Amino acid sequence: IENGIKTVKKYILQQGWLGVLISITAHVRHKNTDVFLHIRIDGFRHRQMVFVGNYYAAHEVLRDELLKFGTSPLLTFPVVLVQALEHWYQTHGFIDTHITAEEKENKLFFYIQEGLQRKVRSLQVQGARQSSVKHIKRFFKPLLSNPYIDEELFQGCADRLKRWYTQQGFWDMKVVHHHYVPQEQPHADSSH
Description:
This protein has helices spanning 2-14, 59-66, 72-75, 78-91, 130-139, 141-145, 151-167, and strands at 17-18, 21-29, 34-42, 45-46, 48-52, 94-95, 98-104, 107-113, 116-117. It has seven helices and nine strands. The strands form four sheets. A three-stranded mixed sheet has the order 5-8-7, with helices on one face. The protein has a two-stranded antiparallel sheet with strand order 1-4. By secondary structure, it is α+β, with helices and mostly antiparallel strands.
């Protein structure tokens, strides 16, 4: 029942309802051990998020990104949500992303111009023994095969590399610094 309630709460929150109250009443018939559940759901405010112009990420992905903070995205100022979305796009390799928000009735519209997305074409390793470079590059192969930069993917590769180093007997290993070096100027056309 508790898992069902969590699923229902998540779904209701995704639909833009705030202040949701779920009450459950159980009626037990001891004769035949039947249990009847009466579930009542009350929502106090509705504010739906609508995304326009997002080609890279589905609406659900962007909405869930904002809902990581609980119900606060549905209560906060749109400019804060715009900054959170712009940051999300930056961590996925986008440059020059422009997002505006507009509230109409019970809907919050996000108008998104994604801009260009950076690609990883090669990997350079510094500060490691030459014999280790081959192994290091192997752990970052998913980053190179992914068509675009993705910080979450990079972190996953770095975590796997760190586990490999500790399995080799090293006490610790860190990626001290990573950055992306542009190879060419981005084109003026930002369409997909």
